[in-house]
Each structure stands twice: as structure tokens, then as C-alpha cells.
Amino acid sequence: MLLSINGYTQEGIVFEFGQNTSNYSHKTEVPPLDFYSQTGQELRVSYIRSLLSDHEISFGLSFFEANSKGKVITTNLDYQTKFLGAFVKTHFNFLTLFNRRFCTSCTKINFFATVGAQTSILSQGTQKINEQVIDLSGKEDFKGLWVAPMLGIKSRFDASDLISLFISYEFMPMFNVTDNEEDFKIRQNPLTLGIRLWL
Questions:
Q1: On the chain, which terminus has fewer CB atoms closer than 10 Å, C or N?
Q2: Rounded CA gap, 133 and 130, in Å?
Q3: Does a structural domain hold residue 197?
Q4: 64: burial class by Cβ within 10 Å (0-12, 13-18, 19+)?
């Protein structure tokens, strides 16, 4: 155990699963291109440790689907994509209920504001134009490195000294930094449930 400023550093492994709501946007103005939100799966695993006693920092890997439907005049579009990512997040504790410092028999509930960033690459993807399916692997708009800032909120329920449960919601706009034209942007809103195992 490493000493922190106000006590001992607490470490853990976090597993998350949930649903990711995605919506694409494209800078094309003529003809108008309309996109509609779709949902996909979100899976994450991360290492987390305390930061300045009450706050936390985490580093992890993610696998997520970013799907969206669209329409150009009478042409229907359907994007089904899967990404692999790596992220770092800082969680700032702004509210604690039933603090065990003052009530040892209480169940502790913490609320955090989350700020972070994620980088990701496309692992698999298709674009369906009416009935024609196109593989997006290697396509200029999707290949390369995607970067996303992360803003969110998390509520953690300390079920015991060994296990915590939590729910989180985040806003993540994704940008392809290796696409010179940067035609596509993907807005993500993952909602996840998680379990933390304290080390």
C-alpha cells in the first residue's frame, strides 16, 4: 500500500458493461444528410486508484459499438462499427452519503464528476447503402486514430469492503484526427453498470 496525502491509497479493478447510444454527423451540406441515433454494446476493464484521498483516477481498455442510421434524399444508410479504445479518467468526488468515517455500519454512496479522454481505432465496420454492404476497414473516413474527450457523472455504492457497484453516464464526441478532411464525427453517450473489486 502506498501512502496518499490523507491516508492510504486504495486500488481496484473495474469491470463495466452497458449500452452506448451513438449518432453520426457529416460536414456535407448538399445534398442534406440526416443521421439518427442507434444503440450498441459497451464493455470496459480498468485499473483505478484513489487520488488525494476522496478522488480517483482510472486507466483502462474499452470495446464498443458505435452505430447510426442515416438518409440522403431517398437513399437509406446504416453504419455498424466496432472500436477498440484506451482511456484515462479522473473522478472528482462531490458528494458522499452515509460516510463510514462517522457511521461504521452505514453503506457508503459516493457521487463523482468524471473528466477524461479516450483514443480508439476501428476494429470492424460496415456501411449499408440500401441493400449494398461496404466494408469500412481501410476507408479514409474511418481508419486511423479517433480521439474523444469524456465528461460524465458516476454514482458508486460500496456494498462491502471488497466490492463496490456503480452506474455511470458520459458524453463523448469522437473525432478522427488522422482524417485530413474530417468528414465524420461520432457523438457517443454510454450508460454503464460496473463492479469494482478492491485490491
A1: N
A2: 8
A3: no
A4: buried
Q: Give the number of domains in the chain.
A: 1
In a domain, 196, yes or no: no
pLDDT band, very low/low/confident/very high, at 100 (cuts 50, 70, 90): low
Quote the CA–CA distance of 113 and 194 in Å, as a whole number: 16
Sign of the torsion angle spanned by Cα atoms 90, 93, 49, 83: negative
Indicate whether 54 pLDDT > 50.
yes
Burial class (CB in 10 A: 0-12, 13-18, 19+), 49: middle
Other beta carbons within 10 angstroms of residue 62's beta carbon come to: 20
Region 111-133 average pLDDT: 95
Please, which residues bridge with residue 46 across strands? 14, 60
Identity (one letter) of the amino acid at 66? Answer: A
Q: What is the CATH number of the domain that holds 129?
A: 2.40.160
> Is residue 7 in some structural domain?
yes
Give the domain range for residue 151.
Answer: 3-190
pTM tops 0.90: no
